[in-house]
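To assess whether ligand presence alters the predicted conformation, the chain was also submitted together with glyoxylic acid. Input:
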Amino acid sequence: MALLIVAPNRDTQAVQEHLRKQDPTLDIRIWPVIGNANDIDFAVVWKHPPELLTQLPALKAISSYGAGVEGILNDPLLPGDLPVGRISGPRLAADMAEFVTAVIINQHRGLWGFYEDQKAQRWQPWAPVGTPRVGLLGSGNMGAACARVLLSLGYEVHCWNRSGSGELDLTYHRGEAGLQQMASICDFLVCLLPLTEHTQGILNADLFAQMKAGSYLINVGRGDHLVEADLINALDQQQLSGAYLDVFQHEPLPADHPFWSHPGVLMSPHCASFTLPEEAARLIYQSYCQVQQGKGPLDAINRQQGY
Ligand code: GLV
């Protein structure tokens, strides 16, 4: 019985230390040093190498190291019946909510403009009238956390999800018509969806044409949700007032990509919310124990649905 962690560019040393505090006897392998592969029965992976799953004959379950599972589901070598879970805890969701709220507030309150005013020594008092209406695409762990914070600020919150319903005190929408309806009335549209065949390219010219004139797009889901050329067009046509992007089709963003210098785009390098070592270790251990008890990994996804 051994646990394999594949998380390049993450602080796996710290994760390992936190795991050892929970169970000093745990057999932990950190990729690329996997030891005897026949021992490994649970793997927690992020951007795992293409052939890895063929080397793990004893695998009982697999989990994403983060919230997104598309990197696992898109692996053509993933055994058809292997349960797939994810590591998506309250800290990850709270960090996302904080980030999305910060972006909305900065835009809504015109803080970017004040930075410019300060540089030019301009004294221009200004405050917006009214509170923004925010449309969230997705109501999972991340979407719900964002909704709660925005509701606490007194914002009008809408949410588009598969069922068109949920537990929070906000307006839910579903289907193609629901998406258009939500887009047409919201000042901010925030993509927090999982990436599936149904959501790929969902942020496209058709949607931008439906969005309220001058509204603002935030993508913290995945780069492939967005048709990048359509966004540049919508910004150039001033259909949208701007966009904040944390995720991109190619990461790191290529040096010659137009987003780097587009005046309508603000961006960050896929770090709106990070799986932090302490929370990761706690949830990995919980998931590992569940797998050993035959219960399947934590936060198991529906492979047909893709999330
Ligand atoms: C980050 O992008 C994640 O899926 O956790």
